[in-house]
């Protein structure tokens, strides 16, 4: 049976407190599930359940004829203002669905982002969660010197880094692969996804006989907006020592 305890807590929180913020979006939002488009709408909402990034909530009319959608029981302690629901298509089924009838979220459906196979904004795939319309990424070529060390071992040094500046986050330094000490790197099986940059792969670092997992990541095929960082490597600032133009960063 599907564990929906986290959705229960979310529904109770949103009924009691309301969302952090909600805004309609003009984007066409679609989602694939079991080989079928189960969502297709231009009437989606960005709903910030917390201050950090939004999720998509959609009206009932967004559910396509190729999907089977059924409301189930009410979520406990929500005064019948939120119901669980089931969505199925193409032989697949998920119960990671909530239907809201609150003042702030009138007849809006939340489907857990990870429960569906692929989401799209217009014709562009999105990953991990919807993009925040109030965030942006700038990728700036620089001639500043960047040196990376760990436990006294030099991991990389370059005077041609790319500075990636993402709203509200610390700078990240993407370094050319030829500037890296490959003797201390080994491939990791870890993959993560970013809505702004795409799929990231990782390397581990081994220095002085100790292995440090996933301290380096790279995007082999980044999204179009982040195409400049393709093949460049980024070291986890918080876990290594980095100097920019001779000044050591605070971790």
How would you describe this structure to a colleague?
- With 251 residues, the chain is mainly β.
- 5% of the residues lie in helices and 50% in strands.
- It has one helix spanning 5-17, and strands at 21-24, 29-33, 36-41, 45-48, 55-59, 68-74, 82-89, 92-101, 106-111, 118-121, 124-126, 137-141, 146-150, 153-158, 162-166, 172-175, 185-194, 198-207, 210-218, 233-235, 241-244, 247-248.
- A seven-stranded antiparallel beta sheet has the order 1-4-5-9-8-7-6. A seven-stranded antiparallel beta sheet has the order 12-15-16-20-19-18-17, with no helix packed on it. A four-stranded antiparallel beta sheet has the order 3-2-10-11, with no helix packed on it.
- A hairpin with a 2-residue loop joins strand 18 (198-207) and strand 19 (210-218).
- The longest helix is centred in the N-terminal third of the chain and has 13 residues, at 5-17.
- The two termini are 43 Å apart.
- The model has no long low-confidence stretch (mean pLDDT 96).
Strand count, sense and barrel status of the largest sheet are: 7 strands, antiparallel
Backbone shape: elongated
Q: Please tell me how large the radius of gyration is.
A: 22 Å
**Percent strand:** over 45%
Number of strands: 22
* Strand order in the largest sheet: 1-4-5-9-8-7-6
| Helix content class | under 10%
Which parts are unreliable, with pLDDT below 50 for 5 consecutive residues or more? none
In DSSP terms, counting alpha (H) and pi (I) runs of 4 or more, how many helices?
1
Distance between the termini: 43 Å
Structural class call reads mainly beta
Average pLDDT for all residues? 96
**Element order: H for helix, E for strand:** HEEEEEEEEEEEEEEEEEEEEEE
Organism: Pseudopithomyces chartarum
Pfam family, one: NTP_transf_9
Domain DUF427: 29-92, 146-238
Protein name: DUF427 domain-containing protein
């Amino acid at each position: 049976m599907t564990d929906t305890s986290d959705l229960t807590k979310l529904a109770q929180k949103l009924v009691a407190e309301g969302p952090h913020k909600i805004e309609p979006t003009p984007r066409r939002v679609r989602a694939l599930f079991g080989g079928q488009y189960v969502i297709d709408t231009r009437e989606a909402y960005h709903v910030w359940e917390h201050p950090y990034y939004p999720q998509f909530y959609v009206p009932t009319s967004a559910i396509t004829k190729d999907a089977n959608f059924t409301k189930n029981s009410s979520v406990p302690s929500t005064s019948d203002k939120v119901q669980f629901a089931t969505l199925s298509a193409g032989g697949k089924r998920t119960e990671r669905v909530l239907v809201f009838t609150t003042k702030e979220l009138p007849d809006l459906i939340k489907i857990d982002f990870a429960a569906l196979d692929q989401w799209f904004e217009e014709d562009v795939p999105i990953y991990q969660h919807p993009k925040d319309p109030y965030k942006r990424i700038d990728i700036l070529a620089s001639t500043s010197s960047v040196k990376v060390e760990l436990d006294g071992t030099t991991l990389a040094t370059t005077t041609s880094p790319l500075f990636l500046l993402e709203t509200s986050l610390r700078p990240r330094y993407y370094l050319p692969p030829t500037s890296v000490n490959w003797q201390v790197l080994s491939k990791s099986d870890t993959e993560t996804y970013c809505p702004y940059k795409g799929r990231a792969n990782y390397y581990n670092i081994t220095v002085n006989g100790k292995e440090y997992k996933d301290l380096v990541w790279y995007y082999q095929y980044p999204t179009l907006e982040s195409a400049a960082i393709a093949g460049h490597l980024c070291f986890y600032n918080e876990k290594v020592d980095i100097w920019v133009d001779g000044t050591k960063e605070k971790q």
